Amino acid sequence: MMEPRIQYARTSDGENIAYWTLGTGTPFILMPSSMMTPSMRHWATERGRRWFTRLAENRMLIRYDNRGCGHSTGNVLDYSLSARLLDLQAVIEGMNLDRFMLFGYFQSGFEAIAYAAEHPDKVSHLILWCASALGTDFYRDEDIDRTLSEDAARNPGFYADMMAHSAFGWSGSEEARLSAADILERLSAATFEAVIRAILQDDVTALLPQVRAPTLVLHRRDRRLPPERAARTLAASIPGAQLAILEGDAVGPYVGDVESVFAAIDEFLGDAQAAKRRASEAGARARSEPTPPSGMTAILFVDIVDSTALTERLGDAAFRAKARELDGALRSIIREHAGTPIEGKLLGDGVLAVFTSARQAIEAAIACGAAGSEAGLPLHLGLHAGDVIREDNNVYGGAVNIASRISGLSAPGEVLVSDTVRSLARTSAGVRFEDRGRRKLKGVAEAARVWAASKE
User: Fold this and answer.
1) Burial class (CB within 10 angstroms; exposed 0-12, middle 13-18, buried 19+) of 163
2) CATH assignment of 7-284?
């Protein structure tokens, strides 16, 4: 697919704002997720192209870069709400748009709300994704601007990685790496201080009752910054707004259960044909996936390698903080692969999950192993399939115990699967298996044959 053609619109204060379009139909402006997110970096990823292309179905998608970001020009330190509104206004005027749909994405929700309130004749529909009316919902402390800018100056590489993964989640590693690379290209303590100060000062609370466009507020349940309460406040304060809380924690709507995002958007915009087609596509995918026989479940057991030694080396508080963050990332990865984390199990530093597809379970396990390595907390990962007993939020049975024992046999970051799982997924594309032989499992009478699963 050809890369979209970059065009430019000039703001009233002299900045050149890069934008591009995709598709035809009703204009749909997809705003930047933040002031540091270039659109072409995102286009370079397969997931990004798929996201943009599907949004452009039956619509004309318009995407632009904020001033000083991506292909837009300007070495500026004015990132105030009024300045960012000039960027949006320039694109609208440059394309001579009379009426359009507006998608306020993460921190650009401020501009989306302000513009919709001030131009009710222009905005036909408003969608807000992981947004808030208060800038302080995006940072934990009013003094964080000084601390973060000092960190940026002292260790830019680490800071860029931290900012990127905070935005995209550990499961969105490809986008996070590209975002970190872009941040490093333009990184300066002064720039970050200007960006964070601008966000902290944003407050569009008073404008919420003035929004007249039909509004859909979308939020990820486990997203902490901004928190879920911010989404509920938006929906309660904008007249007639609809609220949908989706699963996951990544700020990228193209990460995780993307189908639920599109379903919510299509229903809100009244695109019944697209919704019906996507439901049909989802059903076809489900029918084509190799799944365990009726009554069987694929079970994934994940545990941090030598957590006691890590606690001693890092300190209890630091280890717990890293482990909690990784736990959230692992659960998001599991949900992205149609798995169910078992919330009721008390597993210490481990995660237990069940799947209806052996292939998805293996892919989730491989992704979990990568997330653990990236977080500096290597994991034991084991998979088995069999009958389980479900009770409340827990699962029990011998198959669960075997998955746990196989996990304990794995090397750090290695995914070991039972012969049962390998048989169920042996024809899956993109996965290879290496025979590890028959191994004795603690508490199990017969030795079990295990395989190391990895990407081809």
Assistant:
1) buried
2) 3.40.50.1820
Residues 213-247: tens digit of each pLDDT: 999 999 998 888 898 999 999 999 999 999 999 98
Architecture of the domain whose range is 297-455? 2-Layer Sandwich (3.30)
Query: Taking Cα atoms as reference points, which of 69, 75, 81, 77 lies closest to residue 40?
Result: 69
Cα 128 from Cα 235, distance rounded (Å): 10
Instruction: Please identify which residue in the block is written with the tokens 């990685």.
Output: 161
The residue-averaged pLDDT of 290-318 equals 74
Q: pTM for the complete prediction?
A: 0.60
Calculate the alpha carbon distances from 239 to 14, 66, 205, 265 in Å: 36, 29, 13, 18
Angle made by CA atoms 255, 261, 264, in degrees to the nearest 5: 175
Where are the chain's structural domains? 7-284, 297-455
